Amino acid sequence: MADTKNSGLSPVFPKEDAARPEFWEKRFRPGFTPWDSGGIPLALESFLGREPRGARVLIPGCGSGYEVRAFVQAGFETLAIDFAPAAVERARRNLGLLAHVVRLADFFEFDFGRSFDLIYERTFLCALPRRLWPRYALRVSELLRSEGRLAGFFYFDDGERGPPFGLKVRELEALLSDRFERIADAEVGDSIPIFAGKERWQIWSPR
Ligand SMILES: C[S@@+](CC[C@H](N)C(=O)[O-])C[C@H]1O[C@@H](n2cnc3c(N)ncnc32)[C@H](O)[C@@H]1O
Questions:
Q1: Could you report the per-residue pLDDT of 117-126, keeping only the tens digit for each?
Q2: Which of 15, 20, 150, 206 reaches 20 to 30 Å from 56, CA-CA?
Q3: Which long-range contacts (CB under 8 A, 24 or more apart) does 15-24 make?
């Protein structure tokens, strides 16, 4: 609803908040998804090729869910979540017989009932307003087993505005290094143009 309290002449609309599902719903419904890679990043493919079968992975903020099939085919017990109904619908459509792997759930609220061996990150942290980043770090550490890992793609950029909200130099260390140590870090060569040169593949393990 428009907030007219401060305005003498015209209504002031509340700023959109990327912490709310409506923000993402408004983008998925009309198909405005510029972050969508349309496929599986190479670093993930090669990571999955080296992983043992049978581990349990969480994919938070899965969007269109392309990676879900890759994790299932690599033998992972896979759970993908998104809190925007339109994203869940899209992922389920893409996944066909694997649609049941995707659930409508809020990463911060859902009771997962057990821990994970792996949490996969791609354009989820950078989709969250920065005020939620400490909660993200805490939640990831709560949801991972002590030998678990946080693995995926992290977006670095100096700009203030978002989403995507970029990590500044050393900001990811500041956020994670109390609870995690970084065990892998590599350039990404196959980013889509909006992320080109700004993404790194990293793996973090609880201390
Ligand atoms: C930029 S999109 C990225 C989607 C997907 N990871 C990809 O790479 O295409 C961010 C996604 O995170 C979801 N999201 C944001 N906050 C969430 C939360 N608290 N719980 C679950 N999903 C959330 C949004 O609905 C959106 O689908």
A1: 999 999 999 9
A2: 20
A3: 17/129, 18/127, 18/128, 18/129, 18/162, 18/163, 18/165, 19/128, 19/129, 19/131, 19/132, 21/83, 21/84, 21/85, 21/106, 24/82, 24/83, 24/84, 24/86, 24/87, 24/127
